[in-house]
Structures are given as C-alpha cells and as structure tokens.
Design a protein that fits this description.
Length: 355
C-alpha cells in the first residue's frame, strides 16, 4: 500500500445482494426501526427495502423521522454499492456512526487522544459519569450501546479496511506489533490525533482478525506465540539469573524452531517473550522469569547500595532497570521482597541481603 493510499480510507464496493442478506437487527438501523420491523416480521434488509414508505409509516412508533433514517440508511448503502464511501480521517469515520456525545465518551473510555503507546486504562465509568452528568450504570449502558453500534454490519464493513491497514503493517513485522511498534504506523496523519495503539485496542474488541495477547497485537495463530513462550520458559527455568537475548535465540535455533517456521525471524521470538506476563526483560536485553528472575534482579540491585535501601527506592530502580512492559507495581515487588528468604527487612522498611 502506497503512502498516497493512506490519505483516505476507501471502503471496497459491496454488492446489493450481500447488503440485502443482512439481518435488520444487525444492519445498523436505529433500535426503534429494528423493533418495529421485528414486530412486523421484517427480518432482512431485502424485506425492508421492498416495503413501501406508506406501510413503514403505518408501523406503531414510526414516523417521518424514522422514514428519513431508513432513507439515509439505503442512501449510504447505495454509496457502498458504488464503492464511493471514503473517510478523510479516523474521527470522520467514527462520527459517521456515533453522535457527538457518544464519540466523546468513547474517546474518554479508551483514552484515544492520549500520547504514547502504553495500554494504560482509560477513564473509569464513574469519571465519565461525572464529566457528562450521568450515573455509572447509565454510562455503562451508553458504552455498551456504542459497541453495538460499531459492531453492526454497516460499521464493520467500513472498519474492515482500517483493520486491513493495521494487518498489513504487522505483516512487515513478522505478524506482531507491540505498543512501541504502533507509534510508527504509516497512517498516523490519517488518524488525526487518535492514538494508533488505543484505536487498535478498540478494534480488537470489535472484530477477530487482530487479537491482543498480553501486550502484543498479532494476526498470527495463538498457537505459534504459545509455542514460543513455552520454549523460552523452559530454557529460562534452567537459570536463576537473566539470560542474554542471543542465548535465548540460540535455544530456538537448537530446537530447529526457525527451520519449522522459516517465514519468521528472531524478532518474533524477542517481541513475544518480551511482552509475556511470565517473562521479564532488562533494558540491556537480558531475559528472566517471574518471580524467580525478578528476585535475582532485586538482589543484584540491593548489592549496589553500600547500606540497607528503602523499598520505594529499590522498586523504582527495578522499574528503571527493566523494559516498560516488564515493570511491576509496588505491591507485587514488595511481596517478592517480603516472601524471599534472601532479603532481610529492617524496622524502617529498608532491605538488605541476608549474609
């Protein structure tokens, strides 16, 4: 795909026959119209298309507004049939399916406007409720409704080319991408300030082409990543201290893994184990298992201090030593310090190595 192609997202033409086969309840029509069609036994878009306007207007709870919405729906479908649907930007795509308030909620919930690639949680339901003057339950219902809207046949048809953009990007990276990789997507300009990592996180919940495994997005079969993780864990389990990346890769070469999968490069192994919740990685590309290897790293860091060190200082040093995906919170690391017999805790919450 050329750079010029990223200026606009063009939705491939779709035949009327395909559209007519869509169930009305999944097509992308407003709930009021869907419910009215259900009561009158109108199950498909084809049946709705064949219904005269006068008959539609006779349905209970429908009126001129509903008639206009049905006409708008079929007007959009005609543009789809002719291959004329294009979106100038990610916000424009979302605005085509969501009202202004719903889009604002979605942006807050998924932190779509944040910078950086970390998969930190977006705003809570309570925080969104306070911002929009709604109860927590009402916000939950609104978010669920947004997912339903973006999961309709109409919306999914328009989102599919975007998913393909992401998938094409991953194919240049052995079929995987972590949060750091996604900062380099070639369609950043088209996203118009939408975080590429957070947007993909939303897309993984709406379709099944791309999945999120730990902190790694992938288009590969989960079994391949599971196999990589198992081999790495078995190798690292034999050593108490962190192992160099080159040594881990050598273990895969000895097992003939790259001969079995010649289309993949060592980068796939590195990205998979680096983003595993069971495996940690230092900034210098040394890999270890949690929790045993993390204890070794903590012990090494303590030995660098001439006197007992406070837990907060030690925890900060640990998280500086490892890569962002391997960082752990204070509760987890404090438990390691407390439970391991090689550490001695002082009364002032300092730690030293047992002699």
């Amino acid at each position: 795909m050329t750079k010029q192609a990223f200026n606009k997202l063009a939705v491939p033409a779709i035949s009327r026959r395909v559209i007519d086969d869509w169930p009305v309840k999944e097509a992308g029509l407003p709930p009021r119209i869907v419910n009215a069609c259900r009561r009158h036994g109108i199950d498909t878009v084809s049946a709705l298309r064949a219904l005269p306007d006068e008959d539609l207007m006779r349905m209970r709870s429908l009126g001129n507004r509903s008639l206009a919405e049905v006409q708008d729906f079929f007007g959009f479908c005609r543009q789809l049939e002719r291959g004329r649907v294009r979106f100038e930007s990610a916000p424009a795509l979302l605005q085509s399916f969501l009202p202004e308030t719903s889009l604002a909620m979605l942006i807050e919930r998924y932190a779509l406007r944040t910078r950086g690639g970390f998969l930190t949680p977006g705003a809570t339901l309570d925080a969104i409720g306070q911002q929009f003057g709604l109860t927590r339950e009402r916000v939950r219902q609104q978010i669920a409704g947004i997912h339903t809207e973006l999961g309709t046949r109409l919306a999914q048809t328009c989102l599919t080319p975007l998913v393909s953009w992401y998938a094409d990007f991953m194919r240049t990276r052995d079929g995987v991408a972590d949060t750091e990789d996604l900062e380099a997507v070639p369609f950043r300009k088209w996203l118009k300030g939408i975080n590429p990592c957070r947007f993909l996180l939303l897309l993984t919940e709406l379709q099944s082409t791309i999945i999120l495994r730990g902190n790694l997005f992938t288009i590969l079969a989960p079994e391949i990543l599971e196999d990589i993780e198992k081999i790495a864990i078995r190798y690292l389990h034999r050593y108490p201290k962190p192992q160099r990346l080159s040594d881990v890769i050598a273990a895969f070469e000895e097992k003939g893994w790259f001969r079995q999968w010649p289309q993949f490069q060592p980068r796939l192994v590195m990205k998979t184990i680096e983003n595993s919740r069971l495996i940690g990685a230092t900034q210098e590309d040394y890999y270890f298992l949690f929790p045993e290897g993390a204890v070794y790293v903590l012990a090494t860091l303590i030995s660098e201090f001439p006197r007992p060190v406070r837990s907060r200082v030690l925890i900060n040093r640990f998280n500086e030593e490892v890569k962002p995906v391997s960082r752990r919170d204070e509760a987890y690391l404090t438990e390691l310090l407390t439970r391991s017999s090689i550490f001695v805790r002082g009364r002032d919450r300092t730690y030293r190595l047992r002699k």
